[in-house]
Structures are given as C-alpha cells and as structure tokens.
Here is the input.
Amino acid sequence: MNPSQPWLDAAFEGVIAAAYFAIPIALAVYFLKRRDSAYPWVWVLFGSFFALGGATHLLSGVLPWMPLTGTTLAGTTLAAKGMAAIVSAVTAIVMWIMMPRVLSFPSRGKLSALNAELKAEIDRRSWEEMRFKLLVEAVSNYAILMLDPSGNVTSWNAGGERIKGYREHEILGQHFSRFYTEEDRAAGQPQHGLDIARAEGRFEDEGWRVRKNGSLFWASVVITPIRDENGEILGYGKVTHDTTEQQRIRKALEDANIDLEHNVRERTQSLAELAEQLASEIEVRKATEVTRREATELVEATFSVAPFPIVIVGPNAEVLRWNPAGEKTFGFSEAELKEKGLRLLLPRDGGDGALRAFVAARAGRVNLVTKIAHADASKRDIRLSTMPILREDGSLHAVVGMMEDLTQANRTEAQLRQAQKMEAIGTLTGGLAHDFNNLLGIIIGNLDLLRDARPDDAEVTELSGEALDAAERGAELTRSLLAFARRQPLQPVRLELDVLIGGQVKLLSRLLGEDVEIRLDLADAICPVVADPAQLQAALTNLATNARDAMPRGGKLTIATSHRKVDGDYTAANPDVPPGDYALIEVTDTGSGMPDEVRSRIFEPFYSTKEEGGTGLGLSMVFGFMKQSGGHISVYSEVGVGTTFRLYLPCSHVPEEKKTDLHADGPLGGRNETILAVEDSEALRRIVVRQLRGLGYRVLEATSAAEALTALEGGQVDLLFTDVVMPGGVDGFELIELARRKQPGIKVILTSGFPQSRFAKEMAPGSFHLLSKPYRKGDLALLVRNVLDAQLETQES
Amino acid sequence: MAKVLVIDDDPGFRRMIGIILTRMHHDVVEAQDGNEGIERFKAERPDLVISDIVMPNKEGIQTILEIRALEPDARIIAMSGGGVSLGIGYLGAALKLGANLILSKPFRPAELTAMVEQLLPVDTSP
Here is the structure.
C-alpha cells in the first residue's frame, strides 16, 4: 500500500465496521420484536459474530491513525482478531450443528399453506364463536355467564338481564356473589360453589338468589369450570335458571301434596282406624256370627225338637214357619200351611179364636184356650200363646204362636172326671139306696104285718097288696142303684163265658122278639172269669134290651167273645183300666147308633133317651157291676150303623200265650211288601203305620177313600188295610171294590171299631179279614202275614 | 120261747122286727147301736142276735165280731140295706166274719121268720 491511500482504506474500514455493527442491532430489534423466535441464543451468537467482525474492521481503520507504539497496536489488533476468530468459529460450528433443526422449520410455502389453514380455522372459529355468542345472547330463559377464575363476570346474556335485571355493562367485571342473598354470602356460598365446581367438575344448586332490584327468585344453578389444555382454570361457565314459577308450582304441588299426603295420611289413618275397627268389628261379627249361627242353630234345633207345635206368622199373617211338632200334632205339613195360611187351622164350624189371637198378639202376648182343626177334619183343643216379635225400630217382625194340644189331656181328664163323677154318683146313690132300703123294709114289713093282722079283711088285703107292689118296685130301684154304686151283694164264682152266654140265648131271643136276629160268635178257647153269673146275665139282658130298643124295625144282635190283652195304647186312653188279660164280650147291634153327647152319658144313673119305660138305671147297673167285678165296659157307636158294647172281665187264669215273633225279619215280619193304610183317625193311623213299618212293610197312608184311590194310582200296592166306616161317603167295602178295579190282585184287610160279626152280611165267609179295634201288634202282624201268604199260595197253586 | 136281741139304729125297724118276733112268741131285747148291743148281750145272754150293719158308734160287723168273741156259739143274723166296702159287700163280709145268716133289706116278714126258725129250733125253746 501506498501512503497516498491510507485515508481511503480507513474510510472503507469504517463503513464495513458500521455495517457490521448495524446487523447485530437489527438482530436485536428483531429479536426484541419477536421474542418467541426459536433458538434466541443462536441469534445472540450470530449478533456477537457480526459485532466482533465490525470491531476488527474498526480497529483496522482507526489504529494507523493512533500514536501508538507498534507493539500496542499490533497487540490490540491481534486480540480483536482472535476474539472474532473464536466467535466466528463458534458461530460457524453452531450453524452447522443447528442446520438439521433449522431445516425442520416449515418452508415459506408450507407456512403460507399453514397460514391459510390457520386463517380458515380462525374464520370458522370466529363464526362459531359468534354464532354461539349470538345464541347465548339470544337465550333469555337462562342466564349464561362466564366468570373469571376469581368469580368476576366476564360475559353476560339476555337471559341474565331478564332474570337478574342487570344490563351487560352494569355487571361485567362485577363479582358474581352479588347474586346471592346476604346470608348465603355470609356463609361463603359463592366461593363454595366455585370450589366444588373446580374440584368436582360441576356444581349444581338450587336456592334463592337476589335480583338487581333486591327481589328474590328461585334459581337453579349449574357452574362448570373452564380450563386450558394444561388444566389451568381459565374461568367458570355459569348457567342460572329462574325456577321461581316452577318452584311456586312445585311448592304449590308440594303443599298440595303435603295436603294430599296429609289428607292421604289422615285418610290412611282413618282408613287404618276404620280397617282396625272393621277388623275388630269383623272379629266381633265373626264371634257374633258364630254366636249368632250357633244361636240360630240352637233356635232351629229347639224349633225342630220342641214337643209342642210352634207357628211363626209374618206381619201380613202369612205363615213363615211351622215346626215338626205342629205337623205331627195337627197333620198339616209346613208347606201346606205356608201355602194355605193360618185359616187352614181354623175348624170348619166357626171358632176363629186362633186367628184372632194372632191378630191381637200384635199388641202383646195373648193366651187362650181354643179349638183348631186337624188335617183329619177333627177339632183339637189347644192352649195357644201368641206373642209379637218386634224389630229394633218397634215394627212388627213376626208373631209366634205356641200351642199345647190339650185334646188328649182333656180327653183323659174328661174320662177321669167322668170316672170320678160316676164314683160320686155311686156313693150318693149307694147311701140313698141304703137308706131307702131301710125305709122300704119298714114299709114292706109293716104292710105284711097288717095283712097278717087282718087276714079276712079283703079291703085291707087289696090295699096293702097295692102298697107292697109299689114298695117292691121301690126296692128293685134301690137294688139297681146299689148295683150301679157297686154296693150290691155279689156272689162271684168262676165261670166259663160260652157256657153262660149259651145258656142265656133262649131267654134273650124271647126278649128281642122275632124281628131281631141273634147271632153268637164265641171264641173256642177263652179264659174263665170270676163274676156273679146272675148279675152278668142281668147285664147282658140289659144290653140286649137296649139293642132291641135301638132296632125298632128289627136287626141283628151279635154276642161275641174273645181274649183281649189290654196294654199301652188302650190303658193310656182309659186310665181307669188296669192293663192285663181280659175276656171280652162284645154285644153289637145294627141299630140307630148314638151321637157322642149321648154315648158319653149313657152310664150315668137316671140318664135315659127312652121316652117311656126307661129307668135310666139299666146301663148304670151294668157299669157298676162291671166295675164291682174288676172289669170295664166301653161303647163304640156310629150313628146309623150301630153300637157295640164291650165288657172286659179280667181273666182268672191267663191262657198260655202263643209266642209270636214280631221282628221285621221274623216269620211274621214283612218282606218289604207295600201296604196302603186307610184310616181317618190320625192317632190310629199313626199307630198302625208305625206298627206295620216296624214289622218291615213299606207303608203308604191315606185318610179317606179318595186319598187311597189316588195312592193306588201311584203304584203297585200288595195289601189294602182299610177302616170300614170312614167319612166321605165311601166305606171300606166300597173302597175295596174300587181298589180291585184298579189292581185286581190286591189283598185286603178291613179294620173296624165293630167286631167282625157286625159285618157278617157284607162279608161272605172268607171274603175279607177284619181286624177289630182295638187290636194288638201281634194280631196285626199275624193277620197281615197270613193274608199276604194265603193269597200268595193261592196264586202259586 | 127264746130271747132275741135286735140291734138297729132305726126304731121303726126295731119295732117291726119286735112285732114279728113277738108273734113268734119270742122275747125281744132292743139296742140302738153296737155299743148298746154288746152291753145288752152281756147282760141278757140272748139266744139270737139280729143286727143291722150300718150303724153309728159301733157298726154291725165289729159288733158281730165282738159278740162272737164273747160267745163262740152265738146265733147271729146280719141284715143290711146294702153296701159294699173295699169291694166286699157288707153282708158278704158279715157272713164271713161271724154272722150265721144274712138278710138284705127290704125283706118280707116271712123271710125273717124262716131264718129265725132256722136258727131257733122249736125244741131248743124251753
């Protein structure tokens, strides 16, 4: 170099240095503007490289001009150059080292693409954000706001304004705790909500919140935390819903529910109480029901087994119930009575006392003795007690009538009364007769003495004779009275009735006259009796005389004897007759018969139906004689048919009784043959039905011929067992005729209060069998079996 | 001639029987009931007693029993207007309990005469 050019070199050196210094400065400015530049230390190194390069160039331009020793100059230049060399080397090394990393930076094109993409994304997001923002702002039902991490409001929407009353500018930046009530704020509720949201990701709450104007609203709040990708809290989203109305409704509903629940509870309670009551009621009722059922059963049983008739009548006099005793006693079934009513019980000839008692019983208990009808058309004496059964309200439920059948008791009582009356009359007449006999004795004796004193005085003889005749008649009368009074002297001896009666027939035929036929039907073997034969003959004469008088146009008198055992049924009806074996004499006429009122009095002394000639003592004598002889007399009579007197004299020696096997399976028992029993007397029908059933027969019952014919229509009957005399106009004989037309092979047995001999004319020998009442079971069994078997043999042969 | 005791509560009867017996020439002693009859029997020792049955104080059957006890061989006729006690006629009872004969009232004097003659044979009279 030449010396003319030092300045120029220095100038160039200065410009290079200045440029070199300018580069790190530019880098620094850039770096300061772009702090996020990658690898900043590389920029520092790069800047240092340029700065050191500039420094070397500066030293090169300045130093020649400095009054410096060569050594100092040379040393300074060397130092600068050495530092520049180090930094440059380091920078170069770093550049090479960094080359792969720098190369990984996107190229410009790629960056443009990325930028475009980014821009699009930003645009898209901006749109969504805007849309979301618009949406959030548009939502008015919900307050949707953003809080910063400390709880200050950072966004607001229309819902918030509507609900809480704040305008956006009023609330942004304010702490959200102002929405809380004082109490909640004091209790730290706002922060608590944020803490929970932060900790658990979601906080939900309901409660009272405060509007801008201080009024309260019921808010349903959800707070959710908003975090960045690193999980740092950016803030909170808060959605608040005013549910005051819902709350009010819910409250109202709750209240209503509470009311309802209360009501339901109350209702449930009362239902429970009711149920409890009901349960206990049911228990009580069950118990009551059981008690009532038992009581009902008891009452029903009592009703059924009561031995006396009970009828229950409704308010309209309709028959509700009629117990078995009623049916048994009066023959009407419950169904019959229910259908036909109480009137069925009234006897035909008036006497509605029973009905009146039921009517009167509406007012209170009625007791009376009256008559009611039996199904067999007879009348029964009853004692009737009727009483009202009232309901709780006092209305009439029913009238109950209880009856006591007094008929049998009355009959027995009447018989006893009759017996006692006869006894009393006997005592009276006996005493009277005794005294009369004394008087007559004096009269007769003195008349005789008078006649003896004046044997030649015809007048004395004639007059005393008249007086004596009268006195003798008087004496005869008193003897009859004594006989009735059982005070006549008797000379009883053991005698055979057939002999005695046989010996008397001639006398009797003379007494009876030509118009009356006399018939004897004397049993072969009959027990002997002990009696005064003269008085017995007198009794028979007496009966024959009465029979003759009953048959003014003639007829037939039958005297029959038989052996008769008197037992249960007979002595029950005749309490003054001791049971035992009797010889029976039956004296039967075909006369006019007599009605009950006559029949019941015929043994009373001085009772006479004869217009003249009757002393009224004939039958009384017979009665007294029979009683005095230990026997008994009875009479059976049907008006227009005849009369049978039965004289029972006790056997002095009881004949060996034929042993009869009366069991159903015995030789005399039934073989289930069907017997139709026709009997108008309820009592007798019951007895015969019971006896026949007991013997093993099937028994149908009928109370009249009409009923019997109906029964015959119903099926095969083996044996017709019928009474001879029956009401309704058809007698036993006619019934047999009619029955044989229906069932030609039917066997028949007749039964009657009259002895068989009474029906000799109607009954051709062997045509019928007749069982005379009263009969014993053995007689019945034997005859029924014989009749059935005999006809069977006939059929077989 | 015999002595006859007549016991009857009816004076009319006693008198009538007295007349009959007197006509038969017998002596008659009268008594109006059984008690008096027993007394008279003891005092008079009659040959025959005729006694009624139904009498006051002491009736005839008892009287007959007592007389029979006093004199086993006494001859006694019982008479009565009739009557039965316990099923036995008074006269029947009397016959069984001591009377030789019985006579029911009313009777004809001849009946009594016959009975008296039966019990008092003529040869027994003194």
User: Anything to note?
Assistant: Strands of chain B lie at 3-7, 27-31, 48-52, 76-80, 84-85, 88-89, 101-104. Residues 6 and 30 of chain B are 5 Å apart (CA to CA). The interface with chain A takes residues 10, 12-13, 16-17, 19-20, 23, 54, 80-84, 87, 89, 91-92, 102, 104-110, 112 of chain B (CB under 8 Å). Chain B has five helices and seven strands.
